[in-house]
Write a structure and sequence with these properties.
Helices cover 22% and strands 38% of the residues. Strand 3 and strand 4 form a beta hairpin. With 94 residues, it is an alpha+beta fold. The chain has one domain. It has 2 helices and 6 strands, in the order E-E-E-E-E-H-H-E. The longest helix has 11 residues.
Length: 94
């Protein structure tokens, strides 16, 4: 497993409490403080790249949202549309 701090999009400095994680199977996670917010299930052979968002904390705070958007490369509005369409799955990740 590899864990690294995310960096600020503006200053490129490491940001405390915001993490990119890659597990031994290649799945990718965004963790904010002690909570997993996003999991990209890369090792899923049926539907590789499936995105899961924690159903309780995906939109927990402004800071979490800022780094979730950076991690996914999209806006909250785009994320919400993908949840509504079923492209992203809400799940209990914690």
């Amino acid at each position: 497993m590899k864990v690294k701090n995310m960096t600020s999009g503006r200053t490129n400095n490491e940001v405390a409490n915001q993490f990119d994680i890659v597990d031994d199977q290649g799945n990718v996670y965004f963790q904010s403080y002690d909570s997993v917010i996003v999991k990209i299930h890369v090792s899923n052979t049926i539907n590789p790249g499936q995105v899961y968002l924690d159903k309780h904390k995906w939109d927990f705070s402004k800071t979490t949202g800022k780094y979730r958007n950076q991690f996914l490369g999209e806006t909250k509005k785009e994320t919400q549309a993908k949840i509504d369409s079923g492209e992203y799955i809400l799940a209990d990740l914690n």
